[in-house]
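Sample entry follows:

:::
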Amino acid sequence: MAVPRNALRKWEKVREFALGLPGAAEEFPWGETVAKVNKKVFVFLGTDDGSYPLGITVKLKDESAHAHALTCPGAEPAGYGLGKSGWVSIPLAEKGAPAAELLCDWVEESYRVIAPKRLIAELDGR
C-alpha cells in the first residue's frame, strides 16, 4: 500500500516536533514508532512502512481538544482500553485530516499530560 505523500509529510513534521520536545526520545516497541518522555509514551506514531494507514495517537485531557480530535475523519478512541483514558487515534491520510500544525498542538497537549513538571517548565521557557 502506497503511503500518500501529504500524509507522510504530516507524519514527518509531527515526529520531528515530538522529538524536539524537552527530554523526548524515540523508541520502537511492537515494531511501532513512539515518542516517550520520562519512559512514558506521549504519542504513538505507528509505522511509516505502509503496512498500516498513517496516523497518530495522542492523550488529550482537555475536553475541547479531545472532542475536536474525535470529529476528525476516521478518528476514534484508541484501542486496548486506552480510549477510556483520553487517548485518541487520528488517521492522517483521510480526506479532511487535520493540518500538521493542529496535530503538533495535540502532541504538545499529550506531552504536557505525561511529562514531569520540570520539563514542562523548560518547554514554557523556550
